[in-house]
Design goal:
The protein is of the alpha/beta class and 410 residues long. The protein is 29% helix and 15% strand. Bound molecules: S-adenosyl-L-homocysteine and iron/sulfur cluster (SF4).
């Protein structure tokens, strides 16, 4: 049976693109992204006696994640023999910067080539974006190459190629950003662009780049625990936000095992519309999603859940929608983040008028919520929310429609 995209949603299976699994990891693994347990194992592999491993792990942790060293030579507290053995078997490699663009507003975007090979494919690439403010600097990190979901307004969802990033590749994005921004102890700041005034350039992390972080749970968890570890990079969990399109069964686990801030890509207040904008809603409808938010471990008035709402002209931006949004979130410690839609070629949507965004925001504000409108950053270099897409082949508009139609057909 065929159906149009506008057909009324019925109880249907949710269809995902198949992730690509022909990835071959590099022969010499990088220590970047290894947890303490994995570093302990790595030391065992090169013959470090059991009794010394804990102490050696502390040393490595300091050199890798606190000082950001890129070669084993500088690890002066580690004996020469151990350094040589590490060198033979491991690297300190991070993703390679293929291109760096700096926006007129100071936003920086890096196109990163990931280590390893993919049979029959070009090397995989992801994008990572740095958004400087006066006092803080936020790094927008990717969790997957592409995304298996296909939210209708998101550029990343049009990418055909999909694979999960490893923890190393996720931590690697933070390491590269800090390398480029001179953000390690003793580092030299770049002379172009903008950096915040404080001691640190990267003060906040948002898992809002390419991919759905909860579809790559273990790697994202391990990476965020490394990034937040106080003996290393040390970015507090209150300054790390994981954004999900609503993978309900993993939300509680994210709170328990990661403990970072949560953001939900809500975008619609009715299932019928959300099914269309965020097709994962067919699997986990709004009521289930909000129940998971109500019980998110650690959520409180001091630690609110952010609800992201992309402003699409004539689609989800009416005043009635704003009122419904306020009613829907009653009882949840929430912040609402209105995101002006960032257009991309062929998206078929337009951003709401500025006046309408202000009226919508006023309703939310009057109901007692902070409702910041997220200023689009880095639009000139396609670095704004939902504009990220690395070099891999795109799904054609027809294929996108076919996938969406399949999700509506039984
Ligand atoms: N997959 C996760 C995180 C990455 S997307 C998620 O969906 O939450 C990060 C945010 O950008 C999400 O809220 C997403 O809905 C939003 N977004 C995607 N495309 C956009 C676009 N074209 N304009 C504005 N925001 C967009
Ligand atoms: Fe994937 Fe998030 Fe884009 Fe949806 S909005 S396609 S979940 S990256």
């Amino acid at each position: 049976m065929t159906t149009t995209v506008d057909a009324a949603p019925v109880a249907v299976p949710f269809v995902e693109k198949a992730p690509l699994e022909r990835y071959v990891a590099p022969a010499k693994p990088s220590l970047v992204g290894m947890t303490r347990a994995e570093l302990t194992e790595a030391l065992g592999e090169i013959g470090v006696p059991q009794a010394q491993r804990k102490m050696r792990v502390q040393q490595l942790w300091h050199w890798i994640y606190f000082r950001g060293l890129r070669s084993f030579d500088g690890m002066t507290s580690v004996s020469k023999d151990v350094r040589a053995a590490l060198e033979q078997r491991f690297t300190l490699e991070r993703p390679e910067v293929v291109a760096e663009q700096v926006s007129v507003d100071g936003t920086r975007k890096w196109l990163l080539r990931l280590p390893g090979e993919v049979q029959g494919e070009r090397p995989h690439e992801v994008e990572c974006v740095y958004i400087p403010g006066t006092e803080r600097g936020t790094l927008c990190v990717s969790s997957q190459v592409g995304c298996t979901l296909y939210c209708s307004f998101c550029h990343t969802g049009t990418q055909r190629l999909v694979r999960n990033l490893t923890a190393g590749e996720i931590v690697g994005q933070v390491m590269v950003a800090r390398d480029r921004l001179g953000d390690w102890p003793g580092g030299v700041r770049p002379t172009d662009g903008v950096v915040p005034s404080g001691e640190r350039c990267v003060t906040n992390i948002v898992m809002m780049g390419m991919g759905e972080p909860l579809y790559n749970f273990e790697a994202v968890r391990d990476a965020l625990l490394i990034v937040s570890d106080g003996d290393g990079i040390g970015i507090s969990k209150r300054r790390i936000t994981l954004s999900t399109s609503g993978v309900v069964p993993l939300i509680e686990r994210a709170g328990r095992e990661i403990g970072c801030m949560l953001a939900i890509s809500l975008h619609a207040v009715r299932d019928e519309l959300r099914n269309e904008l965020v097709p994962l809603n067919r699997k986990y409808p709004i009521a289930q999603l909000l129940d998971a938010c109500r019980t998110y471990p650690g959520a409180s008035n001091a630690k609110r859940i952010t609800f992201e709402y992309v402003m699409l002209r004539g689609v989800n931006d009416s005043i009635a929608d704003a009122r419904a949004l306020v009613r829907l979130l009653k009882g949840i410690p929430a912040k609402i983040n209105l995101i002006p839609f960032n257009p991309w070629p062929g998206s078929g949507y337009e951003c709401s008028d500025w006046d309408q965004i202000e009226r919508f925001s006023q309703v939310i504000f009057d109901a007692g919520y902070a409702s910041p409108v997220r200023t689009p950053r880095g639009r000139d270099i396609l670095a704004a929310c939902g504009q990220l897409k690395s070099n891999s082949e795109k799904l054609s508009a027809r294929e996108r429609l076919a996938l969406r139609a399949m999700a509506m057909t039984d």
